[in-house]
Amino acid sequence: MPKSDFSRREFLQASAGALSVSLAPGAILRDPDPSLASPRSVPPSDRVRFGIVGVGMEGTGLLTTAVQLPGVECVAACDLYDGRHELAREIAGKSIRTTRRYKELLDDKAIDAILIAVPDHWHKQVLVDAVAAGKDVYCEKPMSHSPADGVEMVAAAKKTDRIVQIGAQRTSSVLCAKAKELYDSGAIGELSLVEATYGRNDPTGAWQYPPPADLSPDNLDWDTWLGSAPKKPFDPYLFARWRCWKEYGTGVAGDLLVHLISGMQFVLGINEAPKRASAFGGIFRWKDGRNTPDVHPVLFEYANVPVYMRLTLGTESPEVTRFMGSKGIIELSEFALSYTPQPGIDLAPSYYCYGLPSRLKDAYFKQWHADHDPKPGEEPAPQTVSYRGNDYDDLRPHLWKFFQSVKSRKPVVQDVVFGHHAALGCHMANESYYRKSPVYWDPASQTIKS
Fold it and tell me: What is the C-alpha to C-alpha distance for residues 252 and 245, in angstroms, rounded to an integer?
């Protein structure tokens, strides 16, 4: 078994207990587990050979998961920090090639696909170069570092007709699929509001990662890592905690909000930028020099429906999305899904009539009960239906679908257009916060405007 430390998500999933236990009898959702098969059981001629660019925290999870899937083989790994070359060989085997130069992977004709797990400000360039080189691409979320980057990435993918899948995993989750099934069936009636929350309360959750103890300009290509960002002296904390600064990352919006938006888009069948966004927040707890907010509530308008999403790095809170309609609520969380029907009718006489004189009130109550009271023994008993499943951010089904698409050439759900629209929601949330003004997406100029 390849060696790897647990990621935050894997730790939380493991600590949640046995996932096969349902909250309601007969309501267990299970992904077929392709990782149980041996990768070596597939003939070499039928394997998808991939290279990975970026073997940091996210890249480690991608690489560890990918090499356990059948029909998949890692050929090479690229990272600007030499210590991660060692890590890549520990995970994928000593025979893989390692390099600091990702274009060496693009020039390798034996490589079919590229996994991209670099800081956000490098996503666009690696993806554009990869599809131009004829490689299919799995790119970590958020897809883009800016709206302009996203526009260029969409154009490049369409021009080359390569498979591109973005790495917000909920579009491959059985829980999200069940939520979509319920919504599409009309279970909650007319949708009127979506609300979602995501909260953390620990230094690691706020990206205060410890830099590698041996990190230095000798084993890290610092100038290349900075890329198009402003030049700065070597800083190991900047290297480890780049998500804290907008020059390299996209804040809690790009790290966390993108999951909420992607899941919502999938369930509701939305594939467009929000019409409007209005964001608030600030840096309330993690005053460590960062310039991205640690509390970031956002109001969106999607397809004429108000959407409220709340992010905080100051308080642990349930990670949940609620789809609220005239006939009930679908509540989606990490390991479970519940549907609670609501009749949307009066279940008792109107309290307004208590403000009437007795002769009118008594006559109203008598008639109401005659018209509405059920027969004894036939009283309605609405029931909340619950489902239990794998973590909706589980990497395995998402990577599995990508590699299957590379083989079959069938399109993926979370393609470059889907990823662009999800990222635009994040960019609009950030722009509204920094501008202190509501913003909207202008399709004509393909820019965010106040």
Answer: 10
